[in-house]
Design brief:
By secondary structure, the protein is an all-alpha fold. It contains three helices and no strands.
């Protein structure tokens, strides 16, 4: 989650914190959908958790920048 902090900080500087937070929240919603419909698929759970980390990073880093 913290590995992408420099990328999300750059994105927040480039797009603005509000747009980056909206992007992060959209990714979090996608993560909920992917992980929630996974059933017993380990690959889908992994993708969902990866999206969760990316969405979290975008939202938290952009929120700290605003």
């Amino acid at each position: 989650m913290f590995a992408l902090s420099p990328v999300m900080g750059w994105l927040s500087d480039r797009w603005g914190p509000d747009r980056t937070i909206l992007l992060g929240q959209s990714i979090l919603l996608l993560a909920v959908f992917v992980a929630g419909t996974s059933g017993s698929s380990e690959v889908q759970i992994t993708v969902g958790l990866t999206l969760l980390g990316i969405g979290w990073s975008a939202s938290v880093i952009a929120g700290a920048a605003s």
